[in-house]
Design a protein that fits this description.
Helix 8 packs parallel to helix 9 and helix 10 runs antiparallel to helix 11. The chain has an 11-stranded mixed sheet. Helices cover 38% and strands 13% of the residues. It is globular. It is α/β, with parallel strands linked by helices. It contains 16 helices and 11 strands. 48% of the residues are buried.
């Protein structure tokens, strides 16, 4: 994740310790070196069942649960093993996690055992009783998916009225005292809605938004045309940065983040330099170095409904092991898994312009899942990197 509000507006935010405080300033220059002490954030797609049919679903969700989903006892054992290992956050996702019969119980167990529990949902099933139950067990955050305003959201989600339902969930969560935020995947269809999204945040007092760059995992082939061009991506990041700055100047310090394109970090650094804010840019570069860039395979892990472990939630074609066969810790630190070990020290394996880029240690080569899916080579440059050769130091 790239904290636009943090980097571009200099705010102090609750997630700072996760994003910048887990790497010592005394690390050697190879800032992507794997540390045995670093525990990954877990994205757990706990069920494949979903009440929507979203065109951009990376999990290829189905109407009902998969036949091989973890049983209740297996799910309890998984949460216990993850918390024993010391993971800081478990993100309960799906499919639609509110369809899982034991969501509240499992989230409560995670919190009781010292992890932060957060929820990613389409919101349509989040009524007052459920919201209050999740609040009472100590859920830290609810991220509600919103892929545009009105018709844009409904079209992407495959159901008329989905936007109204998601907005109702935002209000329900807020009224229950849950911290709530928006999750939006950037596409050609919703780029014109971004101004309205920021207005909606003010109107509904929404303190957080995450803008996800589109990833092709599980993507409906008809949606390939929804990918923003590199130039469109630059324009969208410019807009997000400007809207974030205006929010903060107006006294509404929302947390604004982008996800799944590490080029956003260097781009904000360069943007500050162009604006003559040299000191602020220098601080941003130091924070980006501490963050270390893409965290697939070392700072984040994904676990599917059937217990399969992946380097991140978008790279489901790569299986590192199964929690039905081994403990997560053993899978995550398996020295015989060459791919996993390589992902923990990517700099020496990346090819092309990534390997030569002056921002390599602050970007980490972007999203390997995207490179693999679109080029067939997991070490190829991320096709979504929109920085020019001149910007990355090749000219």
């Amino acid at each position: 994740m790239i904290g636009v509000s943090k980097l571009y507006c200099g705010t102090v935010e609750p997630s700072d310790v996760m994003r910048y405080g887990r790497r010592s300033k005394d690390l050697p220059s190879r800032l992507l070196q794997f540390s045995e002490d670093k525990k990954p954030v877990i994205a757990w797609n706990m069920t494949r069942a979903c009440n929507l049919a979203c065109a951009h679903c990376y999990a290829s969700a189905t109407r009902g649960p998969a036949d091989d989903e973890l049983s209740r006892s297996e799910a309890v054992s998984l949460v216990e093993s993850l918390t024993d290992y010391g993971v800081p956050v478990i993100l309960f996702s799906g499919g639609e996690p509110l369809l899982h019969p034991h969501l509240t119980e499992l989230a409560a167990l995670a919190v009781k055992r010292g992890a932060r529990a957060v929820l990613s949902t389409n919101g349509l099933l989040l009524d007052q009783d459920k919201a209050e139950a999740l609040r009472d067990i100590g859920l830290s955050y609810v991220g509600i998916s919103l892929d545009g305003l009105g018709p844009s959201h409904d079209k992407m989600r495959g159901r008329k009225g989905a936007f109204k339902g998601a907005l109702a969930a935002v209000r329900t969560a807020g009224q229950a005292g849950l911290k709530v935020g928006l999750r939006l995947t950037l596409t050609k269809s919703n780029q014109a809605d971004l101004d309205g999204i920021f207005k909606l945040m003010i109107e509904e007092n929404i303190p957080r938004v995450c803008f996800y760059h589109l990833v092709d995992q599980g993507l409906n082939p008809d949606l390939a045309g929804e990918r923003l061009s590199l130039q469109e991506t630059r324009a969208v990041i410019d807009l997000i940065a400007e809207k974030t700055r205006k929010l903060h100047q107006s006294g509404f310090p929302a947390e604004v983040l982008t996800v799944d394109n590490q080029a956003d970090g260097p781009y904000l650094y360069l943007k500050l330099l162009k604006e003559g804010k040299t000191q602020a840019a220098g601080k941003v570069l130091e924070l980006l170095k501490l963050n270390g860039g893409s965290s697939s395979g070392h700072g984040i892990a994904a676990i599917s409904w059937n217990g399969l472990v992946h380097p991140d939630q978008f790279w489901r074609t790569v299986v590192l092991g199964s929690v039905r066969e081994s403990g997560f810790k053993e899978i995550w630190h398996n020295p015989r898994n060459d791919l996993l070990m390589a992902l923990k020290d990517k700099c020496r394996h990346l090819k092309g312009r990534c390997r030569l880029c002056r921002f390599l240690t602050v970007c980490g080569g972007g999203l390997r899942a995207r490179a693999s899916l679109l080029t067939g080579d997991l070490w190829a440059p991320d096709p979504a990197c929109y920085l020019t050769d001149e910007e990355i130091g090749l000219n």
